[in-house]
């Protein structure tokens, strides 16, 4: 079955890097890629509170710039014809980035969003740009993969999956990590940051469920003691040179603690590693 992947772009170098990464990651899969640019008419708020309409100068100028940018991307992609299973669709939309993403995800039944971590205007010291964090938090109907500025695709060897075993996962909620591991032949490293206390019964049951879900894949369990979750992930990824991190984004939970703004600089320590945020489908 054909996969549908959304690739938001602001025409920055990082956004193109994310597109290139996505193409390589899914090189053997039949895919429809939707390259999305959300444009707005910068400057209209200074003149009036009226949002520009189609036909008005500011709107048409912004629209033209967006379409020209997408045209250039399509041109670059046509030179990369080594993957005949891939089709590309350019989408230009007058909207905020989040609302445009939600709209395309809904209309095209998108399975995954892959985007860069830095926009054209993000400051140098911001590792995960505000747009990326916002999309990861708010676009909850679809998993989001964030590709750092310096990440270049290489065959995945291992995917780190941090968990506290407190959640009873459903198989469909883990479908994306299973698919990525299967198509790249990568091992899944399940990482637990322990306070030294033994796992209670519910945690043991949830651990067994993961064994069931991953049984056809290569996977191992790892525990780091007396260290907080953020440090555990950072140390583990750095020491093993892991290729990807998959977080489960539960509302008000583990994910929030990793991606809160003070954590941004800490994330910079493994800024070369793509991050996939899965979502709790029960929220």
Structure description:
This protein is an alpha/beta fold. The chain has ten helices and ten strands. It has a ten-stranded mixed sheet with strand order 3-2-1-4-5-10-9-6-7-8, with helices on both faces. Helix 1 links the parallel strand 1 and strand 2. The longest helix has 22 residues, at 57-78. The chain is elongated and about 65 Å long. Residues 122-127 and 259-270 have low confidence and may be disordered.
Count the beta strands.
10
User: What structural class do you assign from the helix and strand content?
Assistant: alpha/beta
Rg computed from alpha carbons, rounded to a whole number of angstroms: 20 Å
Sheet-strand content, in percent, reads 15-25%
Order of helices and strands: EHEHHEHEHEEHEHEHEHHE
**Which overall shape is indicated by the principal axes computed on the Cα atoms?**
elongated
Helix content: 25-40%
In DSSP terms, counting alpha (H) and pi (I) runs of 4 or more, how many helices?
10
Neighbour order of strands in the largest sheet: 3-2-1-4-5-10-9-6-7-8
Average of per-residue pLDDT values: 85
Query: Major beta sheet, specifics?
Result: 10 strands, mixed
- Contiguous uncertain segments of 5+ residues: 122-127, 259-270
The rounded distance between the terminal residues' Cα atoms is 27 Å
């Amino acid at each position: 079955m054909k996969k549908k992947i959304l690739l938001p772009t602001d025409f920055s170098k990082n956004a193109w890097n994310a597109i290139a990464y996505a193409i390589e990651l899914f090189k053997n899969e039949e895919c429809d890629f939707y390259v999305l640019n959300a444009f707005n008419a910068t400057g209209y708020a200074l003149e009036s509170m009226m949002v520009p309409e189609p036909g008005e100068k500011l709107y048409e100028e912004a629209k033209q710039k967006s379409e020209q940018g997408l045209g250039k991307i399509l041109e670059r992609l046509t030179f990369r014809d080594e993957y005949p299973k891939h089709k590309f669709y350019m989408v230009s939309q007058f909207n905020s980035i989040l609302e445009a993403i939600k709209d395309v995800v809904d209309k095209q039944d998108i399975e995954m969003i892959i985007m860069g971590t830095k926009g054209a205007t993000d400051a140098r010291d911001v590792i995960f740009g505000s747009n990326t964090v916002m999309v990861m938090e708010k676009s909850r109907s679809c998993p989001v993969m964030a590709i750092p500025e310096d990440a270049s695709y290489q065959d995945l060897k291992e995917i780190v999956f941090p968990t506290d075993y407190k959640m009873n996962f459903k198989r469909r909620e883990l479908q994306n990590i299973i698919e990525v591991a299967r198509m790249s032949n990568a091992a899944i490293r399940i990482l637990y940051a322990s306070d030294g206390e033994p796992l209670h019964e519910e945690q043991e049951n949830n651990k067994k469920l993961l064994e069931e879900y991953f049984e056809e894949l290569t996977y191992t369990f790892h525990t780091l003691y007396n260290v907080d979750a953020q440090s555990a992930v950072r140390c583990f990824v750095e020491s093993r040179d892991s290729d990807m991190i998959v977080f489960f984004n539960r509302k008000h939970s583990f994910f929030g603690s990793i991606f809160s703004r003070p954590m941004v600089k800490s994330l910079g320590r493994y800024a070369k590693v793509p991050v996939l945020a899965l979502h709790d489908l029960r929220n």
